[in-house]
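@channel anyone free to eyeball this complex?
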Amino acid sequence: DAGVIQSPRHEVTEMGQEVTLRCKPISGHNSLFWYRQTMMRGLELLIYFNNNVPIDDSGMPEDRFSAKMPNASFSTLKIQPSEPRDSAVYFCASISTGGTEAFFGQGTRLTVV
Amino acid sequence: AQSVSQHNHHVILSEAASLELGCNYSYGGTVNLFWYVQYPGQHLQLLLKYFSGDPLVKGIKGFEAEFIKSKFSFNLRKPSVQWSDTAEYFCAVNTNAGKSTFGDGTTLTVKP
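replying in thread with the prediction:
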């Protein structure tokens, strides 16, 4: 298995533009998590899905952020409109049934200018 | 709601010094416990994990952690650190509800 795959690896966009981050979890994993990591706030859980259903989105900072998981093999995190303070590394992680270890993707480094 | 607390935000040690990073969690049910490491510029990787059995868990690169249920703790230890251990370390808790909660992380800087 190739592990958790995120795309793009880097994204630079202008303030106000829509940004879509993508994640492909490990096949067979039924939980998917989106995290944001910054120097100031550390690692923050934004939202997590269980069996494609959003379970807890209390970490989503604002209505500008939305996440979907249309099927077991794909999830998106969208920011519309983007702002400079959204600049961060966004990680996706998946966990198999039974709560074993989380496997992280390489992350998407987002820079909003 | 479950939470994870890492007591030290930044630890600075000299090579060969011993390391102990604190981690406490709050959750009344069954948990699985993890330590992850993030080297500079890289993504998180699993260091070690505890599910059940022997509360002293040995991981990669000489790290170990001890689960003390009565204290809700899962501290990470290494007898002698190396410069290459410079990284950020995260403690995490998974519950049977499927939720994974991470601590704020501890940055370890090892001086050569």
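from a first look: Chain A has a mean pLDDT of 90.
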